[in-house]
Design brief:
Helix content is 21%, strand content 33%. The chain is built from 3 helices and 9 strands, in the order βαβαβββαββββ. Strand 5, helix 3 and strand 6 form a beta-alpha-beta unit. The longest helix has 19 residues, at 12-30. Bound molecules: inosinic acid and magnesium ion.
Length: 178
């Protein structure tokens, strides 16, 4: 019988600490200029919520949604935009906020589309990054934690829509030996 186990990887306290540090970096880089924070649903919802609280007042928040992995643990290789931006980003400072960058496919695709809309700046913040999984190389401006090529859940990240509400990050392990 296959049993699923959660192996804690990053604690809620560590996430909170790192989120504050990233916010300091972002504020330093943009100063008092307006910043449009764009969360990529659904995985980034907690990170956006916590990061925003440390970003000061000149911030607008928007969300986009791309196609999801469904209940699979690997990407279908196809990126579809299911919900696009509500705001016009021409001439604006835009910060895309992701839960995790795995292959880099999703973000490479979004960046390509949004660059054509001529933002003043287009930067990327991600809570987690798996550098060893990258097939689409890209520049990531703000990274919370680099992790090994393992499947993780919690703090927004799911497996078949479960575990998003965990306050910490855990590795999801299918233990087939039980
Ligand atoms: P990429 O396009 O391969 O970079 O994948 C990005 C998206 O895949 C993320 O925004 C997540 O929604 C999902 N994803 C990638 N790795 C994981 C993981 O370990 N756990 C949960 N979701 C993941
Ligand atoms: Mg995502």
């Amino acid at each position: 019988m296959t049993q699923t186990m959660l192996k804690p990887l990053i604690t809620a306290d560590e996430i909170a600490e790192r989120t504050k540090e990233i916010a300091v970096d972002i504020r330093r880089d943009f100063g008092d200029e307006e910043l449009i924070v764009v969360g990529v649903l659904k995985g980034s919802f907690l990170f956006v919520a916590d990061l925003c609280r440390h970003l000061g007042i000149n911030v607008k928040v928007d969300f986009v949604q791309t196609s999801s992995y469904g209940a699979e643990k690997s990407s279908s290789g196809i990126v579809q935009i299911r919900k696009d931006l509500d705001v016009n980003i021409e001439g604006k400072n835009v910060l895309i906020v992701e839960d995790i960058i795995d292959t880099g496919l999703t973000l490479t695709h979004l960046m390509q589309i949004w660059q054509t809309r001529k933002p003043k700046a287009l930067r990327v913040a991600t809570l987690l990054s798996k550098p060893a999984a990258r097939t689409h190389e890209m520049n990531v401006d703000y990274v919370g934690f680099e992790i090994p090529k393992k499947f993780v859940v919690g703090y927004g990240l799911d497996h078949g829509e479960r575990y998003r509400n965990l306050p910490y990050i855990a590795e999801l392990i299918d233990d087939a030996s039980n």
